[in-house]
Design a protein that fits this description.
Elements: E1 6-9, H1 10-16, H2 19-34, E2 38-39, E3 44-48, E4 53-62, E5 67-76, E6 83-92, E7 98-103, H3 107-124, E8 131-135, H4 139-151, E9 157-161, H5 165-179, E10 184-187, E11 193-195, E12 201-204, E13 206-207, E14 210-211, E15 228-229, E16 232-233, H6 246-276, E17 295-296, E18 317-318, H7 332-335, H8 355-365, E19 368-369, E20 379-380, H9 382-422, H10 426-461
Parallel strand pairs: 1-7, 8-9, 9-10
Antiparallel strand pairs: 2-4, 3-4, 4-5, 5-6, 6-7, 11-12, 12-13, 14-15, 15-16, 17-18, 19-20
Helix pairs in contact: 2-3, 3-4, 4-5, 6-9
Length: 462
């Protein structure tokens, strides 16, 4: 006769067992053990030093049952992560032949421990349980509460306490799913935890350490320091835990993104002005490079490099050669020669000479190329670029304003909803007060009427 051995994996075992049936089975086993109706040999303990592990072998048989079981469980802490495993082997109690191997991954052990707690609660817990305290946040916090729910189904509140706030939160979430919406589950003492939108803890039982090294002076190439919470940067774009909302994120965005981009736009406008008003060699055979004209900078007489020149907007200035306040001659703007005699356009000195001014106007209105770091159109006139920069700032302001208005409205509506649900609504309270006043007036009239009736009745009988 062919022997058949069933092999059940964890999903099969979970589908076949429920807490109520396990509590009843544990109770029968306890009774059998206490009355001599069970066989439970000593536990075999095996150390496996090479893997930092230990193995336990346990067996049991209830008299009159068709099967007996042998369980092996192991824990190897020498590997990372620690490995915990095992299985239950079921044998035919008549022949000793294997009947089933349960590859449950320790689930039966966890469920049986919770069921044993359920047996104890069935006989030792008060008949009426309204509130439950769970000390600890491990697996048995779940199974013990689940078992109690079977034998004392009336409780409606569970409070969880654990040494690790994160584990306590996970336990609360798990118990809410296990126990259903009819039971309120929360952390002990209803304590508060505050997290960033990225999940970083700011406050949980105690405030986390926040550090920031101030940067006293910013140059165009200076990168601002990050704000750290428990050593984790929360304002660094490279950090996946960086916060994306709130005042801190907004200020960091202005410092690290908006201000940097706007600085690039101003630098590009400064470069455009220097290039638009630059003078070229007017010699018969030009040999000198272009040089700054009306607008100059510390790097003159060389022209600024093509592309973005960081900080240029902070150092651009009117050329002293054409500034009357500095002893300069404004007519050089018409005639040329700001950069030197070789750059004179109006060689005859004619007062009606306008070619150079027209050339400057054309240069201002002509298209030029701007660096992509400015974040706006890279081709266009200097006037168009300046206009686009103003529009970019306005768009950033409008986006920030809309976001702030949305958040403010959200907070107001949420606060109103919370007040209506749990707090004091002034309109509702005034309405109730008026109802009470009307009720009091009616009661007063009724009492006065009854008093008059009693007085008349007494007068008649006396």
């Amino acid at each position: 006769m062919t022997k058949r051995v069933r092999i059940l994996r964890e999903t099969d075992v979970r589908a076949a067992l429920d807490m109520a049936a396990c509590i009843d089975a544990c109770e029968r086993a306890f009774v059998a053990y206490s009355t001599g109706g069970a066989e439970t040999p000593a536990v075999i303990h095996l150390d496996v030093p090479d893997g930092g592990g230990e193995v336990h072998v346990k067996a049991g048989f209830l008299h009159g049952e068709p099967f007996f079981a042998v369980k092996t469980s192991s824990g190897f802490t020498g590997v990372d992560p620690p490995a915990i495993d095992g299985l239950v082997m079921v044998f035919d109690a008549r022949t000793g032949a294997p009947a089933a191997f349960l590859l449950d991954n320790g689930y039966i052990t966890d469920l049986r421990t919770g069921a044993a707690g359920g047996v104890a609660a069935r006989y030792l817990a008060p008949d009426q349980v309204e509130r439950v305290a769970v000390i600890g946040t491990g697996l048995q916090a779940r199974y013990q509460a689940e078992a109690l729910r079977v034998v004392r189904p009336g409780f409606t509140s569970v409070r969880v306490w654990g040494r690790d706030a994160g584990h306590a939160d996970s336990c609360v979430d798990d118990l809410r799913q296990r126990l259903g919406s009819a039971v309120t589950v929360a952390r002990a003492d209803d304590d508060m935890a505050i997290y960033t939108d990225s999940g970083l803890t700011l406050f949980d039982i105690s405030a986390r350490t926040v550090t920031f090294n101030q940067t006293l002076l910013f140059s165009p190439a200076t990168a601002g320091n990050a704000v750290y919470v428990d050593g984790v940067p929360v304002t660094s774009a490279q950090n996946p835990m960086a916060t994306k909302t709130g005042r801190l994120a907004g200020l960091a965005a202005v410092r690290d993104n908006v201000a940097v981009t706007y600085q690039s736009q101003l630098d590009e406008m400064a470069r455009g002005l220097i290039e638009a008003f630059a003078e070229s060699d007017q010699s018969a055979v030009p040999s000198l490079p272009d040089a700054p004209g009306l607008f100059t900078y510390p790097g003159a007489p060389a022209m600024p490099a093509s592309g973005l020149v960081q900080g240029l907007a902070g150092v651009i200035a009117i050329n002293p050669s054409v500034d009357p306040a500095q002893g300069g001659d404004p007519s050089l703007l018409r005639d040329g020669g700001i950069a030197g005699p070789a750059y004179v356009y109006n060689a005859t000195g004619a007062a009606s000479y306008a070619d150079r001014l027209n050339e400057l106007l054309g240069s201002l209105s002509g298209d030029r190329t701007f660096d992509t770091a400015a974040g706006i159109d890279t081709t266009g006139s200097l006037a168009d670029f300046a206009s686009a920069s103003v529009s970019w700032v306005e768009a950033a302001r409008q986006t920030a304003t809309n976001g702030a208005e949305y958040q403010t409205t959200l907070v107001e509506r949420t606060s109103e909803a919370l007040s209506n649900a749990t707090g004091v609504n002034l309109d509702n309270e005034m309405s109730i007060l008026l109802d009470l006043e009307k009720s009091y007036q009616a009661s007063s009239k009724l009492i006065a009427t009854i008093d008059n009736m009693l007085a008349a009745f007494i007068a008649e009988i006396t």
